[in-house]
């Protein structure tokens, strides 16, 4: 099985380091979400891993080898960086056939991936007639063409309709379950949470986190309990007696932070507080991500306090 190994990788553009002594490993059998604010260095890292740019120092290898040394690279690594890359005057099928021929991939794979990406009916239409979502599907078809062990996708959900987003989620999960190495960059936190097992997070070219998704969220966002009751006075009083503070929301539900149902459920039950709802709300990836990157976002809006 094949991992992506980024070791002490640096890429400088003039005095500025787009990637700065970056080290991480992407392992097979799971989907790794690749996150970071605008300009954090994700695309640069992907370009370096694919040999599209030369590092200033350090290495990025696939299965222990630099991408440019791979023979028939599409049979080892499939990538989607720019969905606009296909030539507009070619048909989708011809685009894939040309890629297949240059990498000694059987021509039947073109039809298989067109089918798999839902493009079979548009296969003989020119790419310039494709919608953004169809171009995205064609880019994903090209990435899958060589049945590669390693798949790198930059914002694969871009332009996809809701059905397409559900489809890509299932596809990524399946590719990982087949033992492939799958690295997916995205700005969509809900999306990433729905398909990633592991996260690599960059900020200003440096590694901010390399951790399982669940650990990332649990370590940054404390759980809270959501409550609805017909007797708010009893609720607030009981909680206060045990040192908990309940926050009321406009729709009438209450939140108690930094606690779980197991902790306060018995207290409320013993006190006879009538409950309509009592649930633990887990933290979201978006909350955890914003917590981590708040200090690292180059283009962050000024905070309310700073401008007040
Ligand atoms: N060819 C280039 N010449 C000069 N600077 C560049 C070049 N490519 C990227 N950069 C700079 O490197 C930094 C990292 O850019 P990169 O595109 O890798 O970030 P990213 O994490 O992919 O951002 P986004 O989420 O906005 O796509 C940015 O400051 C960018 O301006």
From TrEMBL:
ABC transporter domain mapped to chain residues: 4-229
One MF term in the entry's GO annotations: ATP binding
Domain of life: Bacteria
Pfam families (alphabetical): ABC_tran
Family: Belongs to the ABC transporter superfamily.
PANTHER family for this protein: ABC TRANSPORTER, ATP-BINDING PROTEIN
Name of this protein: ABC transporter ATP-binding protein
Organism: Streptomyces vulcanius
